[in-house]
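user: Please supply your own:

assistant:
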Amino acid sequence: MSNRSGFSIDMTEFDKRLLLANTRVNKITKKALWEAGAALKKDADEIEPKTPHLHGNLRGDASAGPKAKGKSKVNKDHWPKMQEETLGYMIYAILVTYCAPYAERWHEAVGQNINWSESGVGPKYIEAKIARQDLRDKYYGLIAKRIKEELQRA
């Protein structure tokens, strides 16, 4: 007679629903990152330090959207019945790009004596937004809101 006791639970239905939720979250995350990227660009144009605009049109030149950074690592032992490609979630970032060749020069012009064409413009016009906790919370909040809305749908 064994002193071991225990039970088992059939997690098949849970695993299917988890995979579906994972797929939906990945899909909506990409869409939400477009929205958060647009908010970041808008803030870069309107909140100091603002995007410079006299030489060319940097304010209209930027694009921002999702960039896949890879897949999270998941302990396969916890999910032995699921296929490897269904495990984990994609890791994304917002990628802001400018086509204008001088965009990087203006963004990195820290400590340089530049006669900006408008008050409030200056270097680090993108990074300065990410450095602010209130704006980071805004961007993350947009993404979280879209994911929550998607998962609440039937």
